[in-house]
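Onboarding guide, step 5: your first structure request.
Type a short instruction followed by the sequence, for example:

Predict the 3D structure of this protein.
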Amino acid sequence: MEEITIKNLDHLGIVAGLIDEIKIVEIINQKLGVDNREKITSGQVIKALILNGLGMVSRPLYLFSHFFEDKAVEKLLGVGINSEYLNDDKIGRVMDAIYDLGLTNLFIEIGLLIIKKFKIETKYAHLDSTSFHVHGEYNQIESTENYEQKPILITKGYSRDHRPDLKQCVLDLVVSSDSGIPLFMRAADGNESDKAVFGQILTEVKKQIKLDSIMVCDSALYSQENLKLISNLKWVTRVPMTLKKAKEVIELDLKKVKIPSSTDPEIQEIIRVLQEKGYKWLEQEVTYAGVKQRWLIVESEPRKKSDVQKLDSKIEQEGLKLEKL
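The system replies with C-alpha cells like these:
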C-alpha cells in the first residue's frame, strides 16, 4: 500500500506565487550567478527567507530548515529542493553575497519593477523608520579594508519596540501611499537619529528613483539642515511645536478665521463635513530656513474637549496627592 504524506502550504502558497510572478528568484540569480554544482540557487534561498519572514523569524539560522520540515517545499521553492539544503552555511554565503552586491540598490530595482507591473500610484510616498532589538553582546566590528561598505553598528538607541535594555538596528523605509509598496530600504546603526538623516535619505531617494512623488514624513524631517537639503523636492510634514515660530503662529485666534469657500462641489462637500465634525483651519505662508512654505493650522473641537478632560483629571489627581501630604 502506498504511503501518503501530508505537507502544508497555508498562506505561503499565495506569497510564493507572487514571488514567482514578480520573478524575484530570477533577478537574484541573474545578479549573483548560478553554480550548477549547488543543490539550491541563491534566488531560491532568498525566496525561502521571505517565506520564513512570515513565520519563525526569532529562531537562529541553524534552525532555519526546521520551519520547512512540515511544508510542501517542492511546491514552494522548486522541484528537487529539500529543507535540508537550507542550512546556515548556505544562507550565510547568500546573505554575504547580497551585502556585497548592495542591498538597497537591489531593493529599489525590485520595488520599481513591482510598481510598473501592478500599476501602483506613486503620487505620495511616506518615509519613516523603525527599530529591531537583538539579544547578545554584538561587539562593535571595526571597518577594515576588506569591507567595501561599512557594516551597520548594533548598539543601544531610541527603541521603538520598547526594549531600551537591548541593542538594536534601525530600518529606514519609503513606501507608496497606494498599497504601501516599499520603494526604498536602508539598514542603519542602532543609535541613528531620524532628524540627522531624513533629509539625506530623501535626497538619495530622488537621485535613484525617478518618481515625481510628494514625500510625507513626521516632524523629524523639519530642521533647517534638512529643509535646505530638500529645497528642490515636494514634501509634507508636521512642524514641531518646539519651534518659536510655530508657537507664534499657533497663538493666532482661529475663531476669527473665515472658512474658505470653493466653487468645486467636491471641495464644498469636504468643507461641510469638516465643519460638522468641529474642525477649523488656517493657512499661513511662512519662510523658514530660507524656504517658502505653506503651513496649515488645524483645530479640532472634539480633540480640544478631550485634552481639557485629561488636564482636569491630572489636576484632580495632583489635588488628591497634595491632600494626602
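Each response can be followed by summary notes, for example: Residues 143-148 have pLDDT under 50 and may be disordered.
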